[in-house]
Amino acid sequence: MKNPETAGMRAGSRFGRQAEAERNDVRVLYAARAVFAEQGADAPVSAIATRAGVGIGTLYRRYGSKEQLLRRLCAIGIARTIAELGAALEAEGTGWEVLADYMASAVDARAGAFAALAGTFSLPEEVAAANEQAKALAERVLRRGHDDGTVREDVTTLDITHVIEMFSRYPRRTEEDDHARRRMLALTLDGLRAPHTGLPGPRPDWADYHRTWDGPNGPS
Q1: What is the C-alpha to C-alpha distance for residues 9 and 20, in angstroms, rounded to an integer?
Q2: Is 178 within 8 Å of 82 (Cβ atoms)?
Q3: 193 - beta bridge partners?
Q4: Residue 43, H or E segment
Q5: 1 and 105 in a common domain
Q6: Could you tell me which of 79, 85, 80, 157 has the C-alpha nearest to residue 124?
Q7: Distance between CA atoms of 72 and 75, rounded to whole angstroms?
Q8: Does 56 lie in the same domain as 136?
Q9: Which of helix, strand or coil describes residue 46?
Q10: In this structure, which long-range contacts are made by residues 169-174, counting pairs with CB atoms below 8 Å and at least 24 apart in sequence?
Q11: Which distant-in-sequence residues (6+ apart) come within 8 Å of 132 by Cβ?
């Protein structure tokens, strides 16, 4: 007959290891987002392990390759973006206020951190489909600002995407860096308000943007 106390200890040990593995995974994902945002696609996996405070073996047991880790980060990121956009559609305020709040939140989460990695790996089909869902939601958020006249009419969803990507890569080495980023973001968000002067150049093209994300072998 099994000793219930021994069985409980074994179960507790198993659950303890599982909980520790989950905590390590969270640390790795947070560290990877920051490292890739700051160093780009050439960032060594060892830098991620060091930032996360885990051994390189721990990281590779969870993610067999850098590309696997990047794909996981993209899947998490787009799911969060969809959730944030859905919340924005339910939020109260003017169209500009809702859009500005969403963009500030996206920048704080570094939602556009992986734009610099575009083309270095192939996006899974489910992530590409989720990107289209997010784009449709972003169109609705922007349309609210156009409809109530608080967002300038020549702003597009791709303009919004570019702003989020640009500020997601802004260095955050010191408190002064973060303060400067917030000031520049506030100035940029004010630039979305109506009335306005015209924007230079042609409207950005989603087809051109999507081509930058095609990996070596196209979407996978």
Answers
A1: 16
A2: no
A3: 151
A4: none
A5: no
A6: 79
A7: 5
A8: no
A9: helix
A10: 169/37, 169/38, 169/112, 169/113, 169/115, 169/116, 171/38
A11: none
| Greater model confidence, 99 or 172 | 99
Question: pLDDT, tens digit, for every residue of 43-100?
Answer: 899 999 999 999 999 898 889 888 888 888 888 888 999 999 999 999 999 999 999 9
Residues 90 and 35 in one domain: no
- Tokens 């089909």: give the residue: 125
Give the pTM: 0.75
Last residue of one domain, picked from the residues 64, 89, 104 = 64
According to DSSP, the residues that pair with 151 across neighbouring strands are 193
Residues 45 and 142 in one domain: no
The C-alpha angle 207, 127, 133, rounded to 5 degrees, equals 65
Count of domains forming the chain: 2
How far apart are alpha carbons 20 and 14 in whole angstroms?
A: 10
**Residue 193 DSSP SS3:** strand
25 and 105 part of one domain: no
Which domain covers residue 145, as residue numbers?
Answer: 70-220
The residue type of 214 is D
